[in-house]
Amino acid sequence: MALEAPAKVNLGLRIVGRRADGYHLLESLFAPVDLADAIALRIESAGAAAEVSLAIAGDAAGAPPGDDNLAVRGARAFLARAGITARVHIGLTKRTPVAAGLGGGSSDAAAVLRGLAQAFPAAVPAEALEEIALALGADVPFFLDPRPAWVTGVGERRAPVAGLPSLALVLANPGVALATAEVFRAFDAIGAPSAPRAGAPTSLAFELAEDGALAARLHNDLEAPAVRLCPPIARLRAQLHGAGARAVGMSGSGATVYGVFGDRPAAERAAAAIAVAGRGWTRVAATRESR
Hints:
Layout: E1 2-18, E2 24-45, E3 51-58, H1 70-82, E4 86-94, H2 104-119, H3 126-136, H4 140-143, E5 149-152, E6 157-160, E7 168-173, H5 180-190, H6 204-209, H7 211-217, H8 223-229, H9 232-242, E8 247-250, E9 257-261, H10 264-273, E10 281-286
Helix pairs in contact: 1-2, 1-3, 5-8
């Protein structure tokens, strides 16, 4: 079974509270992009116990092996919940960089859950599949149905968003892996941001057409703490602006920043002009349209 695991960008992210258990509450417009991992899922009969194996190819730098990989953990959780003793092999071709704020690992896990749910219909109810996804990570539920969505709570609540076109993007990363937990700790140390909340998109056509409104929509409360931990983020942001981006945002907890450009040729020219050092990288991508 061939599966696609798309990356995402956060078109803005606001922290709006914190639960008693320490988890932060957010508001964010999640948009899948055309950068995606590929998964080949092979399912066979097994003996007395379920078995899950993983082979990683492609841009695998930093991808966790074995039971540390979210895709493996997702498969094990599904089989345990369903009471199925199958042998599952996951062939993962990585294209989305790891620990970049693009949700690559979360998307891999969700793709495996989707594949197993297709292979074993009704073995795990939809509500239970959502529970498994959320237990794996806050971004995983979104990728069970990856389309533009307004995401709230800790990431488990989502509502599809209509009217998002394909936006030409340049993704840029300084080559530094930022741990989400560290960024949130830095956020807590800085204190609540002063920028006004944009709220759920009610006039998306205007926000996408007017550069100032687009910039306001892309504000990410985690960017300031991420820059404290990784100052090169600010330099990449400046380069994207200098290359002609209409607006610049940071995805998730970083360290990937992205610029929105008028069309793909403009994005490709900008990507060629941006200087990255060491393990830094750029990618040209596009958001997927609402469906």
